[in-house]
Design a protein that fits this description.
Strand 19 and strand 20 form a beta hairpin. The chain is mainly beta. It folds into 2 domains: 30 residues, no CATH class; 386 residues, Porin. It is built from 4 helices and 21 strands. It comes from Campylobacter molothri. This is Major outer membrane protein.
Amino acid sequence: MKLVKLSLVAALTASAFSVASATPVEEAIKNIDVSGVLRYRYESGSFDKKFKSDRDFLMQDRQAHKYRAQVNFSAAIADNFKAFVQFDYAATDGGYGVQETQNDKKGFAVRQLYLTYTNEDVATSVIAGKQQLNTIWTDNEIDGLVGTGVKVVNNSIDGLTLAAFAVDSFMTSEQSNAIQKKDSIHYTGDMGGFLNNIAGDSIGNMYGAAAVGSYETLGGQLNPQLWLAYWDKVGFFYALDGAYSTTIFDGINWTLEGAYLGNSLDNETKNRAGNGNFFALKGSIELNGWDASLGGLYYGDKNKATMTTIEDQGNLGSVLAGQEIFYTEGSNLNGDLGRNIFGYVTAGYTFNETVRVGGDFVYGGTKTDDHTGGKKLEAVARVDYKYSPKLDFSAFYSYVNIDADKNGKSDHNAVRLQALYKF
């Protein structure tokens, strides 16, 4: 949205514009677009006494109030050039007991800062600087992995977006925490599995390319994606995703999506891990407010740690279900030991296009040679309320049951309440 007079913008940009140009600050402000996100989450989890699985990535057994605020400023600074800066604030507080958190403030930080050059004659943009990567291997939500590099995007072919990127620095501190455990460093967080099992300290530059299409064909919509990347000192990554949607019978919207992600690791990395392969297939239907889906997943290795994504669950949310089961020991997509097979069903009903009530059921298991795997299931109940185009409320309750080969049966419960405002 455009703002003409805004004291906050003036305070943040006055020094930069005063030094870089003789243009008055009031005139500069007129050309600044302001957007952002405000998010609040309440989370709480519990484990029964028999729970022996790795808890690092599951919702913890304490209360937590999590706040996230981001404000974005985008300004045209010259012909074909735009500057973008994102200020970010994150904080957590709440809880009781040994692991309680009291106003754990991280404060404001410049999370993204980049320059975009656009040549409309060739439909090409060049983005250089500190930016969220938004690949198939990284989270594309508001807390996705940030890297410093260059991205080139071309839209000269109808229905096809081509991109190439090079990244020489990753903001891993936002995605992981390092904890000293005996004689080793243990990482937790969205990149914890990857850092523990795959890369260690040998992360190099990443170079990649992508082709993302959107076509009307065969009476429906086809959306294919192809991703390729080489990560120096880690390995070669490749991914193919395709979704086809159409209307069948009498107003039934039907979608079929499949995804394959694989990697071939460098020889040095193979000493710590194996090549990863991930297969997913999902079919879904929508009719008169009702929606349902059926899907399945296969990934991992029972002998070696493998990875599918670099950060958290990547941009694979459309072929996944559940909330906590893919964070249990052996099932982390960002690096874990275990061969995983899961099937799932989801269903829900949306009232007046604003309130959806539904649930997920995921069942499968993890197989490992050291017998830390076992049968797993998760049941999730959800409520989502779209109060306005900019404000959403959501809540879920998750129950996870693990019947581990070594430790027997154990349970995990989790609750999350969220308010999300985008402007």
